[in-house]
Amino acid sequence: MKTVLSLLLLVILAAALHQAESLDWRRRRDKLLGIERKKRTGYRKVKSRTFGKDKKWEWEKIDLPADSPLRIGVKHRPKICDTRTKSGDYLSVHYNGTLYSNGDLFDSSILREEPFVFQLGRRQMNEGFEKGLLGMCVGEHRKLVVPSDMAYGETKVLGSELTGRVKPASTLVYHVELLEILTQKEAAPHLFWDF
């Protein structure tokens, strides 16, 4: 009887040990995958505090590599979309522009309380902003994550009076709503032409 109980206890301990090792392995795997995911999405590990011998690490959001692709996220699209934007269209939009690294607002048509009117394809805005609006419907909301190569590159850019500056090689985030597609005659009073 003692042998059976000791064998049973041994089997139970072995199963518990196997389950604990399996759980530990899964935690390590998940931690490693989480770290890799954070690295891919623009974070870096930084030391924040030290408590005795223990080091405390945190994740800090950093700009994406300059050659990253433009990221376009559709946040809302109307059910009916008769016309989509194309190069040469005159657009009226509301937008907020923030820095990817810290979320600081650098420009906003909403704070100016006036929609931004421009001709798509004339490079009145940065390349990523304009490419991100192609094929958009009136009433659609998009989130654009623009890497520095498609934004302002190594150039230092001044923001509006209400906001701050954009540092060189900054990744930008725009939240854009397309208010309407205008005719040239409707857009003319609002356009800023750079000759």
What is this entry, summarized?
This is peptidylprolyl isomerase. The chain is 25% helix and 32% strand.
Q: How does this structure look, described?
A:
25% of the residues lie in helices and 32% in strands. The protein is of the alpha+beta class. The protein has two domains: 2-61, no CATH class; 71-190, Roll (Chitinase A, domain 3). The longest helix has 39 residues, at 2-40. The radius of gyration is 26 Å and the shape is elongated.
What's the SSE blueprint?
Layout: H1 2-40, E1 43-51, E2 54-61, E3 71-76, E4 90-99, E5 105-108, E6 116-119, H2 127-132, E7 141-146, E8 157-158, E9 165-166, E10 172-182, H3 184-187
Antiparallel strand pairs: 1-2, 3-7, 4-5, 4-6, 4-10, 7-10, 8-9
Name some characteristics of this structure.
195 residues; alpha+beta; 25% helix; elongated; peptidyl-prolyl cis-trans isomerase activity; two-stranded antiparallel sheet; 3 helices; 6-stranded antiparallel beta sheet; 10 strands; Chitinase A, domain 3; isomerase
